[in-house]
Amino acid sequence: MEYYFSAHTRRPDPQTKQPNPDELTETQLKPEAQRVLARLLKPVFGTPAHPKVDVEQAGLQFPEDRELASLDPQTLAEGSRLYRRFCIHCHGIVGDGRGSTGRWLNPPPRDFRTIWFKFRSTYDPSGALALPSREDLKRTIRSGIPGASMPSFALLSEYELEAIVSYVIHLNMRGRLEHALGKILVERAGLSEGEAEGKDALPDLLRQIVESWTTRRKLVKKVPPAPRWPMIEAAATPSESAELIRRARDLFVNKGACVQCHGIDGRGDPREIPENAQRRDFWGNVLPPRDLTQGVFRGGSRPQDLFWRIRLGIAGTDMPATDEKQLSDEEVWLLVNYVLDMSRTRPPISLAE
């Protein structure tokens, strides 16, 4: 079994509807160029049965970094074995989300070959999009994604979960290098010229990709303790509870601007907000905002999960991040309480309220 080339799709330009220039398809990369690309990638990443990440190609040694320490051949081989048993039919051999059953699923399985991982607890101090931590990936594999076809693998051992996480990181590194080298081949007039330039560029490109996974490039956003949890249910008096709800609803409607996508009642109904029917994710899939009243939160329904979603956003979607200048931690906690309260008990809220 060998890795193969699979198109790197991107969302069309929302305004012009023109193809995204960052897209890389089979039409652009002809079979001869695909074979050149395979020759460049195989020495670095091996095969599905014998995966590796040969960072020496980039002149690197594996640092003492938890994100990278488990990318040894033994762990990757076990991760690949488990991936081919449990994951390949949805996520595909190369991690493109186009496995044999993936095409029938909505939402589609995740494409692991980009920096766009939706559910994470990390941020990059520079403002760039941060990759998830190993713990973020493991949490998703262990818990599954409610409301999607991603099941829970909680019965796997800790070592097995860690091995799959390592293999997903391997697929991410390979896919991102494939995209970068493929663009070089497409942009050069001749394959020989493109292959030579790809060989020259490979060490620096690989170094950048490997280092993007190190913990020093991203920090876990620590969830500050709630002023009081649960705020609304723990209110000392009915009037205090009503005041907390009023403040939270005011944030939801005004300062937080949540109603622009989720609607005044939290349902995000496209019949009331027509733009929601046209919203798409990074890969071009139709993705309307979450109906908050259903209580199904794909990134997790723990209070801290919702705090991360509001503070860090959901990468690859229209759900934006917020910083402390936009919403304080206390205000984020108020919104978390309000969303959880809405999903359990709250009837539709009219504008008159």
Automatic annotation (TrEMBL):
Gene3D superfamilies referenced in this protein's UniProt entry, alphabetically: Cytochrome c-like domain
GO molecular function: electron transfer activity; heme binding; metal ion binding
Domain of life: Bacteria
Span of domain Cytochrome c: 74-172, 243-343
Signal peptide segment: none
Keyword set, alphabetical order: Heme, Iron, Metal-binding
Cross-referenced Pfam families: Cytochrome_CBB3
Stored InterPro entries: Cyt_c-like_dom, Cyt_c-like_dom_sf, Cytochrome_c-type_DH
Record protein name field: C-type cytochrome
